[in-house]
Design brief:
It is built from six helices and 18 strands. By secondary structure, the chain is of the alpha+beta class.
Length: 301
């Protein structure tokens, strides 16, 4: 273990790197909010007090729940994160990390290595196959409207990639959307074929800095509070969701609550019947935002 004075120096240098080495333009891009970003004013609370920290879907192994009980259909799958079912019953799911457990997710972030996987479960053969690996914390997954590709969220890379299931590009992994204004968490298909993505508001510069730091484990052991600087998860953590085009990944709608005035730390957004339903790890309700009618008020810092 390095001496405390050395660790303190490293911490100071790390803090300076995060907060003071940014160019004016990059700092502005981190702190500013798009003029096209809408606030979450008008949000109502569904089932307040009846739910506790709803995230989206939580899976340990992969479970099938029926009237007869609960069956583990993919036991020992590791840090399984999200799952989507195709019309033929095939399940596509993500493994966030093959090295770390949910409790140690922050270690996966700090190491910054691609331990995530995309897997497929065939219910007829009762077999699981790895379709692709090398994802940087494979978080949410969504199936396209035509079921010809899946989109996989990579939280630590602030991007989503697309894995083709059918056609001439079957088996190919390509870029879908890069440089998102937050770490993508869960992703859900919208009725029009676009996608809604819940964004985790991380300090992108800080995340990249800790991943490059040689003394990262000593620093995290000595100063565990560093994680909250990189990834705020409290009740005051801002919330943001975006809607992206189903073809090119371009952001076409943006809701932002930077000060957690209405809801905090949104991890999932699903559209149904003209409303957007928001789940949050820091709330005891499901947020509802109306999508029809007048344009919502613009967000402000």
């Amino acid at each position: 273990m390095a001496p405390k004075s050395f660790l303190l120096a490293c911490l100071l240098a790390f803090t300076v790197q995060i907060f003071f080495s940014l160019s004016v333009s990059s700092l502005a891009s981190l702190l500013s909010i798009s003029k096209e970003s809408s606030s979450m004013k008008g949000l109502t609370k569904l089932g307040e007090g009846c739910v506790n920290h709803p995230e989206d879907v939580s899976v340990v192994g992969l479970l099938k729940v029926t009237e007869e009980g609960v069956e583990a259909i993919v036991p020992h799958a590791g840090f399984t994160n999200d799952v989507i079912a195709a019309s033929d019953g095939t399940l596509y799911f993500t493994v966030a990390s093959t090295k770390y457990t949910p409790t140690d997710f922050y270690k996966d972030m700090a190491e910054g290595k691609p331990y995530g996987q995309l897997r497929k479960y065939d219910p007829k053969l009762k077999e699981t196959t790895v379709l692709h690996e090398g994802f940087y914390f494979a978080n949410g997954i969504a199936l396209s409207k035509n079921e010809d590709f899946v989109v996989v969220c990579e939280s630590w890379k602030f991007r989503c990639r697309r894995y083709w299931l059918k056609g001439d590009r079957a088996g190919i992994l390509d870029a879908f959307i890069e440089n998102l204004p937050g770490g993508p968490d869960n992703i859900n298909l919208a009725p029009d074929g676009s996608f809604w993505i819940g964004l985790i508001k991380m300090n992108q510069t800080g995340v990249r800095a800790i991943q490059k730091c040689r003394e990262k484990w000593e620093l995290l052991d000595a100063y565990p509070g560093l994680i909250s600087l990189l990834l705020p998860m409290g009740s005051d953590a801002g919330a943001r969701v975006v809607k992206v085009d189903g073809n090119d990944g371009k952001i076409i709608r943006d809701f932002n609550d930077p000060d957690a005035t209405y809801i905090s730390f949104v991890t999932s957004a699903a559209e149904f019947d003209g409303n957007l339903y928001l789940a949050s790890l820091q709330s005891n309700f499901i947020g509802i935002l109306p999508l029809d009618g007048p344009e919502p008020q613009l967000a402000t810092i």
